[in-house]
Design a protein that fits this description.
Length: 423
């Protein structure tokens, strides 16, 4: 009986044939390669950690911590650095009677105004599922101050991805001054803003800059050497001894360094390379796996990003793609705009003015689809942008062709590109 039951559940002759069974051992602790794994040490960010510590230290002396603004491209260890320092500060607070600390950590992701961000913060502090709504902005701010008044004496509010709120930034002005303005009596409030968008910092209103930036810390892109040391620490725990070919880590680092210097990207690449080796039943992870992993991840990155583009982003991108096929890139905004107008015309779309199209082009640059370089124009002292496609042309056309709003134009472009043997 028992035997029959086991047989009916296992269609394979024996356990050896079970397709989940792998013939090779690649990982010892795969979780170390996951996104949310928390490293204990960040030696590559020693200087930045010091600065953060100096900014937070006043909290241990009974006054408010400095407001802080961290900025740098994605994958530079900003979030992990703040988590690391705040964990140390919370440990310290727990061991001392002199520091009563509340840390509120949140992401402004999807909160596009001060009002929304404020409602979101209230929700986080209350630990509730619903955001308050239906009141005017000042009442919403007041509600936040009320919530803060119930917290410990020292309050540190971390707002990650703060750039989501764009120029609608009053809250960032009000919050650090809440005590000075007597909205809050017993708490010391400080704000830590984190931004992946370098332009966000420049575009903030001057009063917010004054109010928010006691200290700002730049997280410059990691170079290949630093990425290598980050990967080596991970690899030591994650992989079976000796399964990584010598050139695997340097190659992962070099690829990531050439791109944006992102540790996140480097770690993903290493993980994917290991997974490919495992899936193929190869007992060594080699350069070939890294190269294939890079192609797969690159393709995925483009796909994800492109699928969420707005129609106007798509028009702007298509214009650059068309110029690329014409061999006319890098192209100036004016040139791209001419193309844009003809494409919008053909697709019967809503035509924006040149300045707005340039904003879309810059945003495509930020998202990694375009290379946007600034050139000085010389005697007039002005500067202008030049755009070109950064992603693979064939893959880009392929993904854009999935969208029925624009597929006519895309298929024409694909035809020309194929005729020119560009794809
Ligand atoms: N110096 C470092 N040492 C170890 N891991 C790091 C380091 N810097 C970044 N990481 C890892 O890289 C990934 C991205 O870091 P994260 O802090 O999320 O970047 P950011 O917030 O700048 O986008 C995370 O998995 C993080 O643990
Ligand atoms: Mg982050």
């Amino acid at each position: 009986m028992v035997g029959d039951e086991a047989d009916s559940r296992n269609p394979y002759e024996s356990f050896e044939d079970n397709p989940y069974r792998s013939s090779v051992n690649i990982f010892t602790n795969e979780s170390v390669l996951k996104e949310d794994w928390q490293p204990e040490k960040l030696p590559e960010r020693e200087a930045e950690l010091d600065e953060i510590r100096n900014a937070l230290a006043p909290a241990t002396r009974g006054v408010n911590a400095h407001n802080l603004f961290l900025y740098g491209k994605t994958g530079q260890g900003k979030t992990v650095a703040i988590d690391h320092e705040l964990a140390l500060l919370q440990d310290y607070a727990a061991s001392q009677d002199t520091l009563d600390l509340s840390v509120i950590k949140t992401s402004a992701n999807n909160q596009t105004t001060s009002y929304q961000l404020c409602a979101h913060l209230i929700k986080e502090i209350r630990d509730s599922r619903k955001k308050p709504s239906g009141i005017d902005q000042q009442s919403m701010f007041d509600l936040l101050y009320e919530e803060i008044s119930d917290l410990e004496e020292t309050v540190i509010i971390v707002i990650d991805e703060i750039d989501a709120i764009g120029s609608n930034d009053e809250l960032l002005y009000e919050l650090p001054r809440a005590r000075k303005n007597n909205y809050i009596e017993d708490q010391w409030v400080s704000v830590i803003g984190i931004s992946n968008n370098l332009q966000f910092r420049d575009n903030l209103s001057p009063k917010v800059k004054d109010s928010l930036y006691d200290s700002e810390i730049e997280f410059a892109p990691y170079n290949a050497e630093k990425l290598t040391s980050i990967l080596e620490r991970r690899a030591e725990r994650a992989f079976v001894d000796g399964v990584l070919d010598d050139d695997v880590i340097p190659l992962c680092s070099a690829f990531a360094a050439q791109d944006e210097g992102s540790a996140r990207q480097a770690i993903r690449l290493l993980y994917k390379s290991g997974e490919l080796a495992l899936n193929y039943g190869d007992d060594i992870v080699s350069e070939t796996h890294v190269r294939e992993a890079r192609d797969i991840l690159e393709r995925k990155r483009i796909e994800e990003g492109m699928r969420s583009l707005t129609t106007q982003d798509q028009f702007a991108l298509l214009s650059v793609v068309a110029l690329e096929i014409d061999g006319e890139t890098p192209a100036r905004t004016r040139q791209v705009y001419q193309k844009y107008k003809s494409i919008v015309d053909r697709l019967d779309g809503n035509q924006l003015v040149e300045r707005r199209v340039r904003d879309h082009l810059q945003s495509l640059g930020m998202q990694g689809f375009l290379l946007a370089e600034t050139r000085n124009t010389g005697i007039q002292g002005g500067s202008h942008y030049r755009f070109e496609l950064k992603t693979d042309l064939e893959a880009t056309l392929d993904i854009l062709s999935e969208d029925t709003r624009i597929d006519d134009v895309v298929s024409d472009l694909t035809e020309i590109a194929t005729a020119k043997e560009l794809t």
